[in-house]
Write a structure and sequence with these properties.
The radius of gyration is 16 Å and the shape is elongated. By secondary structure, the chain is an alpha+beta fold. The protein is built from four helices and three strands; from the N terminus they run αβααββα. Strands 1-3-2 form a three-stranded antiparallel β-sheet. Strand 2 (56-63) and strand 3 (66-73) form a beta hairpin. It has one domain (7-98): Orthogonal Bundle (Arc Repressor Mutant, subunit A), CATH 1.10.10. It starts with 6 loop residues before the first helix and ends in a 7-residue tail after the last helix. Helix 1 (7-20) crosses helix 4. The longest helix has 25 residues, at 75-99.
């Protein structure tokens, strides 16, 4: 079973992975796919958008006669990730309360 992931959560997954190491696009897509179903055709527009928002930047490194574009999180991206993590924690508590059958916060 797979549950659709929101844009904000996908952003958070990408940014969180990039706090651990820099990835080139295909490798990052493969890494995200270990956790949630997402296609390359979805990931590359996400990466472009995150770069446009200045939440990550890129650099190129030669690999077998070609350049690989690597992505890394920026300080602004780390701030955004912290907000996503806060939002997720609050959302998770709310959903756990509803699905767990309690709505009084206990």
């Amino acid at each position: 079973m797979s549950i659709a992931i929101t844009t904000e959560l996908l952003d958070g997954c990408v940014l969180a992975l990039l706090t651990k190491e820099n990835y080139y696009g295909y490798a990052l897509t493969q890494r995200v796919q270990e956790f949630t179903p997402v296609s390359e055709s979805t990931m590359y527009p996400v990466l472009r958008r995150l770069r446009k928002e200045k939440w990550l930047d890129t650099y190129d490194e030669p690999y077998q006669g070609r350049n690989r574009r690597y992505y890394r999180i920026t300080d602004t991206g780390k701030t955004r990730l912290a907000q996503i993590q806060t939002d997720w924690a609050q959302y998770r508590v709310t959903v756990d309360q509803i699905l767990g059958g309690t709505t009084d916060g206990k």
